Amino acid sequence: MGFVVALTVLGALTGCQNLGVQPWERDLLAKPVMTPGAADGLDDALDDHIYFSKEASSGGRGFGGGGCGCN
C-alpha cells in the first residue's frame, strides 16, 4: 500500500517538473504583432466600432451599464 502511494506521489511530482513555455514553443504568439496593445490606431478604432455596435451603445467603457444604449 505504501509503495502505491509513494509511486503516485512521485508520478505527480515528476509531472510538474517542466511548467514553462520556451520561446520556440510559442510559435505565432511570439510575434510582436500579437503583443496586447501593439495595434495601430486604425485597428483600435475598428475594435471600438465593433464593440459599440455589438453593445448598441456609444461611449461607456469607463462606467457600468447595460447594452441598452441608455447610458
TrEMBL record:
InterPro entries: DUF4266 (IPR025362). It comes from Alcanivorax nanhaiticus. The lineage of its organism: Bacteria, Pseudomonadati, Pseudomonadota, Gammaproteobacteria, Oceanospirillales. Residues 21-71 form the DUF4266 domain. Keywords: Lipoprotein. This is Lipoprotein.
